[in-house]
Fold this protein.
Amino acid sequence: MENNKYNPRRYATFMMIALTFLLFQSCIDEDEYADTPQGNFEALWRIIDEHYCFFDFKQQEYGLDWNEVYARYRPRIDDDMSHDQLFEVLGNMLGELRDGHVNLSASHDYARNWSWHENYPANFSDSLERIYLGTDYKIASGLRYRILDDNIGYIRYSSFANGIGEGNLDEVLSSMALCQGLIIDIRSNGGGNLSYAAKFASRFVEEKTLVGYSQHKTGKGHSDFSSMEPKYLEPSARFRWHKPVCVLTNRHVFSSANEFVMYMKALPMVTIVGDRTGGGAGLPFSSSLPNGWTVRFSAVPLCDANYQSTEFGIAPDHLVELTPGDFRQGRDTIIEYARTLINSR
């Protein structure tokens, strides 16, 4: 076996080592910071300062300066403030990172940054989904699927948190073997298990393909990272698809779903149709504050085969938006565009 051959177990082992290293690095001595508003502020700022993985990228993209953030938010901390007030300030500080994988969790609230999809058109409709799937669609674990009336296969995968097995993929793809093309609809898929993304994408690979790189932190500095670790997809040994494929995306495609789009975009027979994805290119890690609140943050950066970060999303090959006119007629503009592409081939 080649040393660089993609292997889910090998990749999972690498990530476990990386995250274990991060855990060791990010442990905070309970005596180092007091359970006071100031202590919790200092602990949070330091955790992010030493372990967040996108400082250099965010500085280039929009000028993020984490030291300047400290100087701006520190005066807002008062040891007489309530826990609601503290939570608001800490949540707002984390919002400066503009990262959907960065959250602050407490028993009373959950600070989050969802601007990567909240400020954009949905480009997806549950009611239209029901029209295209009908009531007699088939279900294979996390996949819902049917053959459309122009002999194009349609697969709806709404969340990579829903598992898929090799047997599921064999059955779904073999049932569509006579179709002239395939539509994979992952719109509004917020992610889940990265291994499912790789497993699914391997069914469309003709040869071992470089799809990206990963790194892990090696020190406390913002630029302290290991060398790039290449990520390859190997062709599945099971049933594989060789005909045209359209992957449908919108801004709510995030995290491992974003990673799936990155894999698929590297393949010659695949076309990405819809809106830009939401991004989320860092594997998340969690740590705790002195008061017990939990902070989650991007710790392991992932990038595509061209060394480009997809943290802020992946542009489609064909930018298509759901139009009000089509919606009123019960037509999904993005699905219909993909059908036209496949039929034209």
User: Anything to note?
Assistant: The mean pLDDT is 92. Residues 2 and 313 are 31 Å apart (CA to CA).
